[in-house]
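Response to reviewer comment R2.3. The reviewers asked that we include at least one raw input/output pair. We reproduce the pair for D-3-phosphoglycerate dehydrogenase here without editing.
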Amino acid sequence: MTFHILISDPLSEDGIYPLRQANGVNIVMETNLTPEQLADRIDGFDALIVRSQTQVTRELIEKASNLKIIGRAGVGVDNIDLEAATEYGIIVVNAPDGNTNSAAEHTMAMIMSMARKIPQAFHALRNQQWDRKSFVGVELKNKTLGVVGFGRIGQEVAARAKGQRMNVIAYDPFLTAERAEKLGVDFGSVEDVLKVADFVTVHTPLLKETKHLINKQAFEIMKDGVQIVNCARGGIIDENALYDAVKSGKVAGAALDVFEQEPMVDFRLLDLPEVIATPHLGASTFEAQESVAVDVSMDVVSYFTTGTVRNSVNLPSVPKEIMKKIEPYFDLSERLGTFLTDLIDATAEEVTVRYAGELANMDVRPLTRNMLKGMLKRHLGKQVNNVNALYLANQKGIVVTEQKTTESKGFTNLITVEIKTAEGIRKAAGTLLNGQGARIVKVDDYLVDVVPEGHLLYVRHNDRPGVIGRVGTLLGQENVNIATMQVGRSIVGGDAIMMLSIDKPAETSSLEQLGNLEEIQGVTPINL
Ligand SMILES: NC(=O)c1ccc[n+]([C@@H]2O[C@H](COP(=O)([O-])OP(=O)(O)OC[C@H]3O[C@@H](n4cnc5c(N)ncnc54)[C@H](O)[C@@H]3O)[C@@H](O)[C@H]2O)c1
Ligand SMILES: O=C(O)CC[C@@H](O)C(=O)O
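Raw output as returned:
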């Protein structure tokens, strides 16, 4: 049998030697196809290997009736419709480590070029202007670099910046005080970072949560004269807001490798002398291109020869016989993870999942991974699945433990998730009620009965007469319909909670008003 592989973006020839060496493969390299031509060409191929140019859309996937694996020679999988690939049973693999170094070096090159106005000076010189006055720069030494997104590349950039004797402050939802100390950086919230940084560099994926993370409001809290870098993904910085911030003088320099639309169509930012740019070259080194091509080629060969891969982004790997028994709990596990993550405004350090009842006699590792997927997807987005969730959690320094007991205190099965953060331990427990679907039955030490779906509000309050009525009245005035409400309390007159299920998400202003009501201690929206 021949395995047909289409490579549709330029890949290092040295990097694809694992493919060239494999028996029974037919490699076709066609790197100049239009989307329409690719759609006409794709059918019949077993594997598609791309970089960031090829858009692997649902339409393309639907035309690829033989496709089994998509290889992304790089990190970001935002050019691949993962949902469609998963839906069609196509494994997506990437090369998460191969270009980390090059991307970090490019970021440093951009910071230094921007700080010393090297591209601008070269441009003038090339136009035969010997101008030594217009290009006075700033030193990096003793300046503060703010790193937003402290994963592989963010950490490598920080290490290099420290070599330039910069102070580094970072924000990442997975960064704990302990890890920050170990890595020799300060840490704080995004606001903390933006407020104190002389240079800001972003290294997050592009997700719903990170789209326009650096916007008008973010620029407003930055120091006057801040310099900003984006070598991660276009769209993390709002380009219109950046334009205005540079124009107003708030931002003294911007260095961009990536853009909201690529290839670039709006060149307005480049009219500004403070802006320097490269056309998405962060990973464009011989070393990185060879390394990502080797990694992805090896996974494609491994899939073809053994059916296994190393860097899966979406592979569901649940043994069939286990799957059948535990499948009904998949959704509940994931929702418990998301529920607790929304509830907790702190970095998870340890996660314990307790399985009580019949589940204690089964291999529940896929459920734990699904719970982690629910937990991590808030910050890592689509790249998390039940295959890579545990790996990603470990990579973030989260210690994950499973515990089992056959005693389940009145429930056939009970799953309790406990998350430890620097602020303490929070927990939620859920079960499947016979014929009535999933329920969250305990939040911390309060007994509840909540369907884990839709929009929920978790309200902490003092157990006093009239509080529940005031909450209902205010939400009514704000046109928020309450579908269900649960109340739990520790002791009469003590701390209490309300769990409300509402028909649509409450506006921020409504939540603020709710939080300001007498006897209310706090309000947390949860969206499942
Ligand atoms: N310019 C290029 O050519 C190039 C090359 C390689 C990678 N990249 C891009 O760089 C980015 C980072 O890559 P990586 O390998 O370091 O990924 P990574 O997954 O190791 O790190 C990303 C980090 O961002 C954090 N994050 C998620 N949401 C956040 C938020 N709201 N605020 C702050 N942090 C948040 C995650 O917790 C994670 O630690 C990706 O977008 C990738 O596609 C670009
Ligand atoms: O393919 C490229 O050159 C860019 C890759 C880079 O953006 C990535 O996310 O790995």
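The chain has a mean pLDDT of 93. DSSP finds 18 helices and 22 strands in the chain. Further pairs are available on request from the corresponding author.
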